[in-house]
User: Fold this.
Amino acid sequence: MPVKTMRDAINEALHQAMAADDSVFVIGEDVAGCMGSSGKPGSVGGVFGVTSGLYDKFGPLRCVDTPISESAIVGAAAGAALMGMRPVAEIMFADFIGVCMDQIVNQMGKFRYMFGGKTTCPAVIRFASGGGFSAAGQHSQSMYQVMTAFPGLKVVIPANAYDAKGLMLQAIAEDDPVLFFEPKALYQTSCDVPDEMYTIPFGQAAIVREGDDCTVVAFGQMVNRAAAAIDALAEEGITCDLIDPRTSSPLDTATILESVAATGRLVVVDESPPRCGLTADIAALAADRAFHSLKGPIKQVCAPHSPTPFAPELEAAYLPSVEKIIAAIRATLS
Amino acid sequence: MSIPKETLLRAYRQMKTIREFEERAHAEIMNGQIPGFTHLYTGQEANAVGVCEHLTDADAIVSTHRGHGHCIAKGADVVGMMKELWGSAEGLCKGKGGSMHVADFDRGILGANGIVAGGPPISVGAALAAKIRGNTQVAVSFSGDGSVNQGTCFEAMNMAVVLQVPAIFVIENNYYSEHTNIRYAVGCDDLKARTEAFGFPVFVADGADFFAVYEAAGKAIAHARAGKGPAGVFAEQGRYHGHFVGDPQYYRGEGELEDLRENHDCLKNFRARMAQTGEVSDAELDAIDGEVMSLIERAVTEARAAPRPSADQVEQDVYINYGT
Ligand SMILES: Cc1ncc(C[n+]2csc(CCOP(=O)(O)OP(=O)(O)O)c2C)c(N)n1
Ligand SMILES: [Mg+2]
Assistant:
C-alpha cells in the first residue's frame, strides 16, 4: 500500500470528493494563493499545502480564495450548505475560531435544531490545531475540546494519515456540520493510505494498542506519545489498551467503557488545558458509568491551566510528554 | 515643513535600527537560532517611524504580526526585543510571547498581535480612555492591506467615528496579504476612499519616503489630538522579505524585489534628501549606522547568553491572583 503523509492523505480526499460530487467545493484564505498577483493562481494550495492542486483541477468556482474574513468564510460555507452544497472551508489556525465563533456556534451548529429538523447544513470546516511549534498563545491551541461542548456540531481529530483520509471523506458525506481538526504536528507523519476512496464512521474509536493493565485514551497528536509511553512500559510487562476516539463528538463511549471494565484503570491524555476539557469529560464518563470496575484513581494528563508559551523549553514543559504519560499510568497501578 | 535636526537624526536612527534588527533576525532564523513564526518589516520602516515620531510614551500603539518595526519606532528596548525573539526569560515578555507578541507598556506599546485585525478595536478602547479622561493622548493601530478586510477592522473604524475618539488607523499597503494581492482581496479600486467612507479623513503617503509619512501622520495625529475624532494614514510600500521567513514568494513579479530594494528604500531616500538639503551630513549618518550595527550586535550577543526560562514559569502570569 502506498505511504502518504497526513497532508497528502487529506489533499487526496479533497481531490476525490470534488471529482465525485460537483457540490463539493473548498473555500478559504490562500486555498489557491497568488490571486491578483504576478504569480500563477493556485500555486500555494493553502498555507499548509492541504488544498494543493485543487485550483488547477477544479478552477476558481470550486477552489474559492477569499480575503481575510473568517466570519464571512464560515458564514458563506454555512449558507451554501443550506442551499445543498457541500463546502469544505479552511480556517487556517484553529485559534482563529475566536474570530468566527458566532457563525460556527450560533448559526451553523444550531440551524437544524432551531428550524425544527427541517434543514441540513452539510459543511465541513477544517483547522490546523495544536502546539509544538513555538507559535505561542494565538497559534497553538487545539480548540476541539471547546467545540465538543456545542450540541449540533460534530468534531473530528485524526491522529494518522489513514484515519485522516477516511474521516475527511466521511465528514464531506455527513449531512451535519463537521469541524475537522488537523493536528499540525502530524501533517508530515505518514503511514499506509489506500489510493481508493473509503470512509471511517464517526463515533467509532480506533484501538491502537491492546493490553490488560490500564486503559489509555488519547486524542490527536497525543496518540503517538501515548503509544510511545505504552511501548516503553510493555518492556516491564505492563500492558495497556490505547484508544483513539477519532471523533470527540460523537464519542465512542462503548469502546472506552468496555476497556475500562476490563482493565479497571484509566488514563486520559490531551494537549488542551484541563478545565472543561476532553480529559475531564472522559474521566467523568468513567467515574459515572464504570465506577465499580475501577481499581485505582483516574489520571488526566493534559496541559496546565495556562495559555501556550512561546519559548521552546516552556512549551516542552507545557505539553504532555511521554514521561508524564508513563508516570500517570504507573500512578493508576500503584 | 521644517523638521528639527534632532528629529531627523532620531528618525534615521530608528529606521536604520529596524532595518538592521530585521536583517539580523532574518539571518538568525535561517541559522535556526530563533524559534516560532517571524514576520519581518524590512522595507516598511518609514511607515512606523514616520508615525511614531509624532507620539510620546503616553500615546498608545497597537501593532500586528509584523510588529518589530512598530515596536522599535515607538521606543521598545531593542535588546529586550531581541531576547524575546530568542525566547529568553529576560525578553520583553519573559519568553512567553515571542516575535508575534512583543509589548512594552512603559512605551505605550499595547502589543503586537497574532490575530489579523485583532488590534483596531483595542486602539478604539485606548482612545476612548483618553477621551473619558479628557487628556490629549491618542491611540494608533496598524493594519495591513489584508487586515482591513476583517469585520473587526470595520467595526473599530465605525465605532471610532460614532464615539469620536482620538484613534488613528494606519493602513500599510504592502500589496500582499500572505500570498494574495490587494487587487484581489480588496473588492473596490480605492481603499483610501473606502476607508474615508467611514467618516474620517485619510492622509496618503509614499511609504518609502519618511518625509511623506511624517507629514501625513502629522496631519492625522493633529486631527485626533485636537478632539476632531479619528483619522487615517494610508501608506504604500512593499516588504523586502516573504510573508514569513521561508516563504517561496510565488506571487512576486519578475524583478519586483530588486526594484523594491533598489528604488523604494526609505534609508536611501532619506540620505538623498539630506545630501540635497544639507541638513545632516553623510558623516553624521555614517556614525549612526556604526552605532546601530554595534547595538544590534550587542543585542544578539546578549540574547544568546541570556538566561532561559524554567519550567516553573509556565504557569506564572496567567492571572495576577487566582486564589489557589
Ligand atoms: C484572524 C487571522 N486570520 C488569518 C491569519 C493568518 N495571517 C497572518 S498574517 C496574514 C496576512 C496579513 O496581511 P496584511 O494585513 O496585509 O499584513 P502584512 O502581512 O502584509 O503585513 C494572514 C492571513 C491570522 N494570523 N489571523
Ligand atoms: Mg499586506
